[in-house]
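Q: Hi! First time doing this. I have a protein sequence and I read that you can turn it into a structure. Is that right? Here it is:
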Amino acid sequence: MIRRDMQEVLDIESLSFEYAWSEEEFVKCLRERNCIGMVAEHDDRIAGYMIYEILNTRLHLLNLAVAPSMRRAGVGRQMIGKLISKLTHRRRRQILLEVRETNLGAQKFFRNLDFKAISLLRDFYEDTTEDAYLMQFKQQEAGGFSPVNRIARLAS
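A: Yes, that's right. Below is the predicted 3D structure, encoded as structure tokens:
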């Protein structure tokens, strides 16, 4: 995401969310050293974008939207696939994000991509008193299984 992308990103943002980020919020976030903005393009137009934070042990998806004309065409799935590809078995093994409790479309979208709701965050948003679901995608160990502590399992 570069400066000249901002107007198209803002247009998609305002068409996608009742409580849209302002240009100042985008710029402030993108100025942070660990914050990355990425756009998906189709026919020289921005089809979608995402903003995420790189943290020590995880990635935190802050914002994701797809242009209304490009929805249900796989753009969001490809962007999340790109984010998942940045996970590693040794360091960053999970992606976290928050979804408004009223945003059923986003909840379903992320569930279909193997994200799980792991917590309810009460009164999470500054603009409303709405709750959010904390959702997580967790990278599996190589071989498709997670290690098990046999001693703890036998003790219980």
